[in-house]
Amino acid sequence: MKKFAFLIAALLLCAGLPAQNTIKLPAPKKDAGMTLYQALQQRASVRQFKTDAIPEQKLSDLLWAACGINREDGRLTAPTAINSQDIRLYVCRKEGAYEYIAKDNSLVKVSGKDLRQDVAAGQGTVGEAPLFIVLVADHNRYNRPNPRTATYGAIDCGYVSQNICLACEALGLSTVPRAMMNQDVLKKELGLGEGMELLINHPVGYKK
Ligand SMILES: Cc1cc2nc3c(=O)[nH]c(=O)nc-3n(C[C@H](O)[C@H](O)[C@H](O)COP(=O)(O)O)c2cc1C
């Protein structure tokens, strides 16, 4: 029986079918229809969310705005020190946790667990959000780490976080940047190794 299952899996792989743990997102629309100044005027932290799911199109639009590729040479919507592109984004939702891969506009599953309560870390109602985006600075992106690497990571993370705040407003969504989270569980479940620093998370949803 085991041999049979292995054979089927091998056949599927050979047929070039997408692996089950990769979700291809719809192309980002990049036209949320709100001006930057309107989004700045509206931006405010929200901590109470409806449980309604976020459509994949909105998620794609949001992730692209956060840290997607906006130029042919692969550079991003958010600036990063020495173009290190050191900020990694993880999406935690009911069916599991995924890393956002900007170059493929896809989500790659890293855990089958619902980690939202571990991200919420017991803070009131934020755990009811349909998804969280978790921002991790990958200090390994620097060929030659120096004493400023962690500072650069925190600054780079701030740009991505603000992109998320403003894009949420433009897309009719709400969020709050949060430093609180269960670091030990998330490090383990997201598979974060040496030099990968959990910095900020964003619950994302419709305001209650
Ligand atoms: C680095 C940072 C960490 C934060 N951590 C949390 C947090 O853990 N929980 C929370 O509810 N809000 C957190 N916030 C949100 C702030 O409390 C919020 O931005 C502040 O009260 C100002 O409110 P406003 O965002 O509506 O302008 C954080 C904000 C920043 C910038």
Q: Kindly report the name of the CATH homologous superfamily.
A: NADH Oxidase
CATH architecture verdict: 3-Layer(aba) Sandwich
Largest sheet entry = 7 strands, antiparallel
Helix/sheet category: alpha+beta
Total separate domains:
1
Poorly predicted ranges: 12-18
Could you state the order of secondary-structure elements as H and E? Answer: HEHHEEEHEHEHE
What is the overall shape?
Answer: globular
> Count of helical segments?
6
Bound molecules: flavin mononucleotide
CATH topology: NADH Oxidase
State the helical fraction. Answer: 25-40%
Main β-sheet, spatial strand arrangement:
1-4-3-2-5-7-6
CATH class term = Alpha Beta
- Using the CA coordinates, give the radius of gyration: 18 Å
% residues in beta strands: 15-25%
Mean pLDDT: 92
Written account of the structure:
With 208 residues, the chain is α+β, with helices and mostly antiparallel strands. It has one domain: NADH Oxidase, CATH 3.40.109.10. 32% of the residues lie in helices and 20% in strands. The chain has six helices and seven strands; from the N terminus they run H-E-H-H-E-E-E-H-E-H-E-H-E. The chain has helices spanning 2-14, 36-42, 56-67, 116-120, 149-170, 183-189, and strands at residues 22-24, 87-93, 96-101, 106-111, 131-138, 174-175, 196-205. Helix 3 (56-67) packs antiparallel against helix 5 (149-170). It is globular. It starts with a helix and ends with a strand. Flavin mononucleotide binds next to loops. The site of flavin mononucleotide has 9 residues, from loops.
